[in-house]
Amino acid sequence: MTRAKLFPLIAAVPAIAFALAACAGSSDDQSADSAAGEPVVVYSGRSEELIQPLFEKFTEETGVPVEVRYGDTAEMAAQIIEEGDASPADVYYGQDAGALGALDGAGMCAPLADSIANSVPATYRSADGTWTGVTGRARVIAFDSTQLSADQVPRSVFDLTDEQWRGQVAIAPTNGSFQAFVTAMRVAAGEDATREWLLGLVDNDVQLYEKNGLIRDAVDAGEVQLGLINHYYWYEKAAEVGEDAMNVQLAFAEPGDPGALVNVSGACIVRPTDNADGASALMEWLLSESAQQWFVETTFEYPLVAGVEGPDGVPPLSQVQGPDIPLAELEDLPGTLLMLQDVGLT
Do 25 and 115 fall into the same domain? Predict the structure, then answer.
């Protein structure tokens, strides 16, 4: 198979699987009041370039300092589990529900105050009130509008293995969003169907890239006709260069298709934490109107709290219908990593 780019998946898949199966201690319910002067330690799976200005805004508005450790979403979750009770983390902030579910499954997410947990619709948070989505991101099919019209774009990701798309589909198998999408397919369509689909992509000369943004740019440049990305990557580029300057356009998969998955970036308070008050203050602030509006204007993601409008030009979240599965069921990240490895996408 010819590949545009080949990147290693997280090398220590067995170690991560072991870590995600570990157990951790307990803690008391968290207070909603902030601890003045004591830094909130955040383990962030979202990039420093993107998120650091948000944390600076939090400190400016509340006076609560933040110390952040950045890394890959899955790696940061695994690190917290490996550290166990000794972890200095107060808050975990990841880019998909799968890592949050794995962390919660290991007993590392503390119960959230009702004022935090009930801020977000049940669809986008854990059923037991231990983690919550912060923003929504929809999976989409990017296409080159100079080679394809919108009605020529497949309406299901399962059609991407057809011969007509040989060498023309781009994915990012080392990216957390793609991994969560594959996990959703495993839950919605089953293990066998998902493995068959992945093998079909391999046999169809799928093109591999490291990141969503690189896929977007490859489609825009005509390197491939189709690519699987999150919606906001297109809107970020459009804000930078103007919509008229872009060949790449977006199509949404049909309702119920794994390709229309709406995932979340989300957070939890790590248990046990030495700064329950500061952690709760940060969690509440991330779901405030101020922070949600920041996401809309800066990252073009969907806000998840009532009363905040989504980005201009983005279909309402109510119209984007992915597979009917609880996001909490995306917790088996190790299983997805192993499957991707087994089929040769690493």
Answer: yes
